[in-house]
Design brief:
Blueprint (H helix, E strand, L loop, with lengths): L4 E4 L3 H12 L4 E5 L3 H5 L6 E2 L1 H9 L4 H6 L1 E3 L1 E6 L2 E6 H4 L5 E3 L2 H14 L3 E4 L2 E6 L7 E6 L2 E6 L2 E4 L17 E16 L9 E3 L6 E7 L2 E9 L9 H11 L2 H4 L7 E15 L2 E2 L2 E3 L5 E2 L7 H22 L3 H4 L1 H23 L7 H14 L3 H12 L4
Helix pairs in contact: 1-6, 1-9, 9-11
Length: about 400
């Protein structure tokens, strides 16, 4: 099989890039290890930067997002018995975020690929990028008992942290930066009305909590738990009781509980791989970087990668200009590290650390007190939360 761009990974990043390229007449093939049902079963982020939403519209996939997504002009932080609001609209010069579940976003991208007869191959195994430093790279894979090969101009690694793409970069070239946190987020999805029309981040001595939502009838809640915890040790009743303990009474009194549709624990990790390009291989999203979900930067950081790479490939094919491809890694990483900083800051400010000194705890309290006493600090938070410019 011959195509211009071979994309490894059929999540939102890979599908979005394929859709954008298709609309410009640049053909691609998407290879995905899991089934479509498995991909759509992943319960992930739901807070989209305005830049990500603009990319979905550019890809002609934004109709349902604009109809069903909820524009949020702010969010709440509960701390020290207070409930303070971050006015994103005010402190980011009129910007906002859009709450729309990643599952629905991926469903829209799959539907668009179907409408345009885009090539998405599921169930591939033993995927192996080859000839990445040559002018004619390829990707081999097995599907069932058959071996197959895709010859292409470029290989895009959008296959996540555990994928094969990053591993194809030689150890002497690849440099990795990682920070593991001693806790994770236990998340519960329920068919219940949200406790608040805006997200509520809660800092509490027992641990962090987050009240989020997917729709007016679908809520997503999280509580901080030690990294050693197991999902099966948490009944629905135990989760709701612990969540209620960590919320201010004015919020907890509005909490509507119900059976879990899905329950899982997400470990918290910060990770960056450099460079994001090796020969004809380009890394996108979780294949190159991961952030704690505290600042809602994960999927949005992947979107900025897609933005830079899409325009670079467009310049290559339409104008013979490789400036964007040559500068992709440096440009993408500059924004990635800013997202890392913001996610690290939010995580450190709002979570309880098991080995924290009394000094550390007082600094956390002081950080929050300063945040809500400084217009400059509020502007900094708001501009990062709604998304820095591409």
């Amino acid at each position: 099989m011959k195509t211009r761009v071979c994309i490894i990974g059929g999540g939102p990043s890979g599908l979005l890039l394929a859709q954008l390229l298709h609309l410009q007449g640049i053909d691609s093939v998407v290879l995905e290890r899991q089934s479509r049902a498995h991909v759509l079963g992943r319960i992930r982020a739901g807070v989209l930067e305005h830049g990500f939403a603009a990319l979905m519209r550019l890809a002609r996939c934004g109709t349902r997002m604009d109809q069903e997504g909820q524009i949020h002009h702010g969010f709440l932080i509960a701390h020290g018995g207070r409930l303070d609001r971050i006015d994103l609209h005010k402190y980011s010069a009129g910007s906002s975020v859009l709450v729309y579940g990643q599952t629905e976003l991926t469903r829209d991208l799959y539907a668009a690929r179907e409408r345009m007869n885009g090539s998405v191959i599921h169930g591939v195994q033993a995927v192996q990028p080859q000839g990445l430093t040559s002018a004619s790279p390829a990707v081999t894979y097995r599907i069932g008992q058959e071996l197959a090969r895709v010859d292409c101009d470029f290989v895009i690694g959008a296959d996540g942290f555990h994928g094969v793409s990053r591993q194809a970069i030689p150890p002497g070239v690849l440099k990795e930066y990682e920070k593991l946190y001693p806790f994770g987020w236990l998340g519960l999805l329920s068919r219940t009305p949200p406790v608040s029309p805006e997200l509520v981040y809660a800092k509490h001595p027992r641990g962090f909590a987050l009240c989020s939502l997917r729709s007016p009838q679908l809520s997503r809640y999280y509580i901080q738990v030690p990294s050693s915890e197991r999902v099966e040790d948490w009944s629905d009743e135990a989760f709701w009781a612990e969540l209620e303990r960590r919320l201010p009474r004015s919020v907890a009194d509005k909490l509507v509980t119900g059976a879990a549709i899905e329950k899982s624990i997400a470990p918290l990790r910060s990770f960056v791989a450099e460079p994001m390009r090796y020969g004809r291989l380009f890394l996108v999203g979780d294949a190159a970087h991961i952030v704690p979900p505290t600042g809602a930067r994960g999927l949005n950081s992947a979107a900025s990668d897609v933005h830079y790479l899409y325009h670079a490939l467009l310049a290559h094919y339409q104008n013979g200009d490789d400036t964007g491809l040559d500068g992709y890694s440096a440009k993408a990483l500059a924004r990635v590290w800013k997202a890392q900083r913001f996610s690290w800051w939010m995580t450190n400010m709002l979570h309880s650390f098991p080995d924290a000194l009394a000094y550390d705890q007082r600094l956390q309290d002081t950080e929050l007190a300063y945040l809500f006493s400084s217009e400059a600090a509020l502007r900094s938070l708001a501009e990062n939360y709604v998304g820095l410019p591409f």
